[in-house]
């Protein structure tokens, strides 16, 4: 090889440096998510009202034109991607049905599908830019975590100019300086603006405006006020007006959605020849009692046909409706604040704070009665709204609609009920507390009053709680009980283990073992968890009891009660089921099993899964050897001792008609305890001679 000149070495050195930089990579760049390659040419912003700086309708500018995103197939994963595009660390939620108001212009994206890990929304699947069959009533929004990405460069994020908007409303009593009962139902309307609380000019004020105000404050309706009295009172007081020209239609869920005008800073003459707006609201009976108002004679109302299930707080839950004597859910297609507000007011609350989709309050079970509900907001019942009767292929329970309603402020949260180490407790102030679950505070529950039975017994009998935002909700598949019920005469020599676990009637103790048999009513029970948290045994694995005979652990003493009752409720036979194995037998399509009993595994029932006790396993029966022929009620109760918290205990009992002729048994008309309407319960079938409990 010939000599190499210095010039040639410099060329080789330069080439070597370039190769090294390609192989080893350039120095680590800043983690700031500046304009990413995938997002070049796009700009993002949050718009709409009422909202906070980290939430709103998502708008994208493409090719110089601003547009929105349709909520079809929108998920939290897509919200994560968009929040990062906007400079936030992650999303905490998302909204549908134009919660922040409808946008204008193009709908850029539809059927957006993201995994949540994409660096840009352009990496997500969709129908393509500008290809959509939606309207702006379906505009999607996001709620981002109020935490910015470190070093984020917002060159591709445009913040919509923050116009004045009404964030909060209250009623200030105009008379009575002393302590007034809560909630406040009448007073001057005040709105919170950036510089403080201001009053609203009443010129042009209408009942529609009052209806919206009352809805925001948690009241279902409004009533007329003595305007002349308040005008006279206003002449003696100073006022600070910030708002005028309010003109609501009456169907708005928030005052910001009404037509209104703000006074400018240089407006000197405010509300000429007018006064402060005054509103009087009508509370539902529950809140009327807490405000000290006289209970009005309520008009006889028809049967309740709408209810909320699965919520952790009053006024929230999965919407269920009653049709043909059966409760079912509502599909979230086209579900919006107007429909949600109709539900809330129908149940005695105010307007809706949120219209929830995607089974946010847990998946229901059974029928889905309604879809594409379109309310104007003026209807007195959800059933009065135009809707589509659903077919099996139209919707699934993963699309169950829910609501969060506005509730009156009662001040209950200021009475703190403390739970602490009771070693220093010197006095017990309540005993005999019995609540139905709908009370607003312990004061409203039945209790012993001033006569406390364990006033000075130390800490041994002091009560405590552990609170949770979510809970399980168990429901028995009643149709399966009816389909699988049958009688078996089982030889005694096959029942030793069952006798050891107390699964036979007391008369079995005096039987001629191992000869003879016991007559058993067998059936399968399939128990679903429809709640928002897994159902777990109260006791940890360290305290489970091993049963040698059956070779398994019991994680709960009693998991279900099985009873045979006479028509008047007298128990003639009973059985019980210790939860020797709580596990996920099967799950819904999009849910994975988490609990399995094998190898001393964790026990429980995952949300969206069910545990199946087959009819052919030990103790899955009622011993009816001593039951005489007649007409009875078969009753099954899950979690009968309330050992594990559930969001709803009213659906834990199932009842069936039961006819036994001494040889065969007929079980039918099985239904969950409150699943039938009052009329259907009145028609709960009676066989001839049922009152005397004898076969005629």
TrEMBL record:
It is found in: Nucleus; Secreted, Extracellular space. Pfam families: Lysyl_oxidase, SRCR. The lysine tyrosylquinone cross-link (LTQ) is generated by condensation of the epsilon-amino group of a lysine with a topaquinone produced by oxidation of tyrosine. GO terms for cellular component: extracellular space; membrane; nucleus. Residues 1-25 form the signal peptide. Disulfide bonds join 70-134, 83-144, 114-124, 248-258, 331-395, 344-405, 375-385, 435-445. It comes from the Eukaryota. Residues 44-145, 169-282, 306-406, 430-468 form the SRCR domain. One of its GO terms (molecular function) is copper ion binding. The keyword Nucleus applies. GO terms for biological process: collagen fibril organization; inflammatory response. It catalyses: L-lysyl-[protein] + O2 + H2O = (S)-2-amino-6-oxohexanoyl-[protein] + H2O2 + NH4(+). It is an enzyme of class 1 (oxidoreductase). Transmembrane segments: none annotated. Keywords: Copper, Disulfide bond, LTQ, Metal-binding, Nucleus, Oxidoreductase, Secreted, Signal, TPQ. Its main location: nucleus. Its EC number is 1.4.3.13. Its cofactor is Cu cation. Mediates the post-translational oxidative deamination of lysine residues on target proteins leading to the formation of deaminated lysine (allysine). Belongs to the lysyl oxidase family. This is Lysyl oxidase homolog. It comes from Capra hircus.
């Amino acid at each position: 090889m010939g000599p190499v000149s210095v010039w040639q070495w410099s060329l080789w050195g330069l080439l070597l440096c370039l190769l090294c930089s390609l192989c080893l990579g350039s120095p680590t760049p800043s983690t700031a998510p500046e304009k990413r390659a995938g997002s070049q040419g796009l700009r993002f912003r949050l718009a709409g009202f009422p909202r906070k700086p980290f939430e709103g309708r998502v708008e994208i500018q493409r090719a110089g034109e601003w547009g929105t995103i349709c909520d079809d197939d929108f998920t939290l994963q897509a919200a994560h991607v968009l929040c990062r595009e906007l400079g936030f660390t992650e999303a905490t939620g998302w909204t549908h049905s134009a919660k922040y108001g409808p946008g204008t212009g193009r709908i850029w994206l539809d059927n957006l599908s993201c995994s949540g890990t994409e660096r840009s929304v352009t990496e997500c699947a969709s129908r393509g830019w500008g290809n959509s069959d939606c309207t702006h009533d379906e505009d999607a929004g996001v709620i981002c975590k109020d935490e910015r990405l470190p070093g984020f460069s917002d060159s591709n994020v445009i913040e919509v100019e923050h116009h004045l908007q009404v964030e909060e409303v209250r009623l200030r009593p105009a008379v009575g300086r002393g302590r007034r009962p809560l909630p406040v139902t009448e007073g001057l309307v005040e709105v919170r603006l950036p510089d403080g609380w201001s009053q609203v000019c009443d010129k042009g004020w209408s009942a529609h405006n009052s209806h919206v105000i009352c809805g925001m404050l948690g009241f279902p309706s409004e009533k007329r006020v003595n305007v002349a009295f308040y005008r006279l009172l206003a002449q003696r007081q100073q006022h600070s007006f910030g708002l005028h020209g309010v003109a609501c239609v009456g169907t708005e869920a928030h005052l910001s959605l009404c037509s209104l005008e703000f006074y400018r800073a240089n407006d000197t003459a405010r509300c000429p020849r007018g006064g402060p707006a005054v509103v009087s609201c009508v509370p539902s009976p529950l809140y009327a009692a807490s405000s000290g108002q006289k209970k009005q004679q309520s008009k006889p109302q028809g049967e309740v046909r709408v209810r909320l299930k699965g919520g952790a707080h009053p006024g929230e839950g999965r919407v269920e409706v009653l049709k043909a004597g059966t409760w079912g859910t509502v599909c979230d297609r086209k579900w919006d604040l107007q429909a949600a507000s109709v539900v809330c007011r129908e149940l005695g609350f105010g307007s809706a704070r949120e219209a929830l989709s995607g089974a946010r309050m847990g998946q229901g079970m059974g029928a889905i009665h309604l879809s594409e509900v379109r309310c104007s907001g003026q209807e007195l019942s959800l059933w009065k709204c135009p809707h589509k009767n659903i077919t099996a292929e139209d919707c699934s329970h993963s699309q169950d609609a829910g609501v969060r309603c506005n509730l009156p402020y009662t001040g209950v949260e200021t009475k703190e009920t403390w739970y602490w180490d009771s070693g220093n407790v010197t006095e017990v102030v309540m005993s005999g507390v019995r609540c139905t679950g709908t009370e607003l505070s312990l004061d409203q529950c039945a209790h012993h009053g001033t006569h406390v039975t364990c006033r000075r017994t130390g800490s041994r009998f002091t009560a405590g709680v552990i609170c949770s935002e979510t809970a399980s909700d168990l429901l028995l598949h009643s149709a399966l009980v009816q389909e699988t019920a049958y009688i078996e005469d089982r030889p005694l020599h096959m029942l030793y283990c069952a006798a050891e676990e107390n699964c036979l009637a007391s008369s079995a103790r005096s039987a001629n073992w191992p000869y003879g048999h016991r007559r058993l009513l067998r059936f399968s029970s399939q128990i679903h968890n429809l709640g928002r948290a897994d159902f777990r045994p109260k006791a940890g694995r360290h305290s489970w009891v091993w049963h040698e005979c059956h070779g398994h652990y019991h994680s709960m003493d009693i998991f279900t009660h099985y009873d045979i009752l006479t028509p008047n409720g007298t128990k003639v036979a009973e059985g019980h089921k210790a939860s020797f194995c709580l596990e996920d037998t099967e799950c819904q399509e999009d849910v994975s099993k988490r609990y399995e009993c094998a190898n001393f595994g964790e026990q429980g029932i995952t949300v969206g899964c069910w545990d199946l006790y087959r009819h052919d396993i030990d103790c899955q029966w009622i011993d009816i050897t001593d039951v005489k022929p007649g007409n009875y009620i078969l009753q099954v109760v899950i979690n009968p001792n309330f050992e594990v918290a559930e969001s709803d205990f009213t659906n834990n009992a199932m009842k069936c008609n039961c006819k036994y002729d001494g040889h065969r048994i007929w079980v039918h008309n099985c239904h969950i305890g409150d699943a039938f309407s009052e009329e259907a319960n009145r028609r709960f079938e009676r066989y001839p001679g049922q009152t005397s409990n004898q076969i005629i």
